[in-house]
Specification:
alpha+beta, Rossmann fold, Dna Ligase, domain 1, D-amino Acid Aminotransferase, Chain A, domain 1, nine-stranded antiparallel sheet, 12 helices, 17 strands, 33% helix, 27% strand, binds adenosine-5'-diphosphate, binds magnesium ion
Length: 371
């Protein structure tokens, strides 16, 4: 059984590592010579849209999936219709996730609360959006944003118009700023037979738009129930196959959907050691038509991202119980180069250890109160 993966980043690498014990092989397509997946699986180097390479991947593999959200839906759609390739998750879900306006419309259609927003394509539309949505807010590019890139927070009209100039001549969205109490995300999987499973809720801390810390299970049962209901609605809407993530702000006890990710997600990395079946394994099970695995948490987990460069391995491994994941990437400011996970018997012990670790690994990031 071989799975073809378009994109060979760390998510693809962790998919491969989860698949090998099940006897699954992998072929990756990625333009980069040092794609992280290349250290653990064969990679064919070329453009994500190269029709010959996609054709070859389809011939060699049972199913194609992707680990990167900003690949061309058109190229994959054309390929699927011409070659009859099976691509999971479904392309309409990928298309919705690629455009923040489509994402917001999806939430509204499914009755999932989201931020107030307006599409912005000109200074006069920006003026109208500011009047209708109010300040403060955030101006974002509709497409190609990730890790907080392509978005600027604005407090005044002047700032908004400056942000409009800075972001350039691309379609934008203006969103109301949500003074959230915390951020959460929920991850689930749906199989080809329509079976669904949902993981415990993740509590996430971002700094400069990049995820720094996730704790799970997180929050009261009511949040879990609400988030799972919203996630399931999205899964059913797309007749989804694979792993899907929904991110929320929590404001005064209310969950407000922010965005979806049609793939395994950084906030689910704790599931490798912290749950019965990792998100990576469940994605593979789902797209290959295998029974889905149990999503129960095995303890209280914390995942901390290693950003920019890896801390000395000796220092990290000296922390009792720490699980290290080095993606084999070259250091670069703001780049996710690895993560580490702790799984403890109690939330209090997990928080004590994670707080200390975060203080050494990311001194500027505040450790939040327990939820
Ligand atoms: N409308 C908003 N209100 C408050 N915070 C926001 C808003 N939009 C984005 N943020 C902050 O920026 C982070 C990244 O934004 P997001 O829309 O998730 O983009 P990305 O695709 O880069 O993950 C969020 O997790 C949140 O911390
Ligand atoms: Mg996000």
């Amino acid at each position: 059984m071989t799975v073809g993966v378009v994109g060979g980043g760390q998510l693809g690498r962790m998919l491969a590592l989860a698949g090998y014990p099940l006897g699954i092989d992998f072929l990756f397509l990625d333009p980069s010579r040092d794609a992280p997946a290349g250290k653990v699986a064969p990679v064919v180097h070329g453009a994500f849209t190269d029709p010959h390479l996609l054709k070859w991947l389809t011939r060699e593999c049972e199913v194609l999936t992707f680990d990167w959200e900003n690949i061309s839906v058109e190229a994959l759609r054309e390929h699927a219709s011409r070659r009859g390739a099976r691509i999971c998750p479904p392309l309409p879900a990928l298309a919705a996730a690629q455009d923040r306006v489509c994402e917001k419309q999806l939430f509204e259609r499914l009755g999932i609360p989201t931020t107030r927003w307006r599409a912005v394509g000109s200074p006069s539309q920006l003026a109208r959006a500011l009047a209708e949505v109010g300040l403060p807010g955030v101006l974002k590019t509709r497409r190609l944003g990730y890790d907080g890139k392509g978005q600027l927070r604005v407090r005044t009209r002047e700032e908004a118009h400056r942000a409009f100039e800075t972001l350039g001549d691309v379609p934008l969205i203006y969103e109301q700023w949500v003074p959230f109490d915390c951020e959460v995300s929920i991850i689930g999987a749906r199989s080809r037979r329509g079976e669904t499973v949902v993981y415990p809720l993740n509590g996430n801390v971002h700094a400069d738009g990049i995820l720094r810390l996730t704790r799970a299970p997180f929050g009261p049962p009511r949040w879990q129930r609400t988030a799972a209901r919203h996630l399931t609605r999205c899964l059913e809407h797309f007749r989804y196959v694979g792993v899907l993530t929904v991110e929320f702000f929590v404001h005064k006890g209310r969950l407000i959907a922010n965005e979806i990710a049609p793939r395994v997600h950084n906030s689910g990395h704790w599931t490798i050691e912290g749950s019965c079946t990792s998100q990576f394994e469940n994605h593979l099970r789902a797209i290959l038509g295998l029974p889905l695995g149990c999503t129960r948490a095995l303890g209280h987990s914390a995942m901390i991202n290693l950003i920019g460069e890896l801390a000395p391995r000796e220092r990290l491994l000296a922390c009792e119980g720490l699980h290290l994941h080095d993606y084999g990437k070259q250091p670069r400011p703001g780049r996710k180069v690895g993560h580490c996970t702790l799984v403890e018997d109690s939330a209090a012990k997990r928080d004590r250890l994670a707080r200390r670790l975060l203080a050494t690994l990311a001194p500027g990031v505040r450790f939040p109160r327990a939820a």
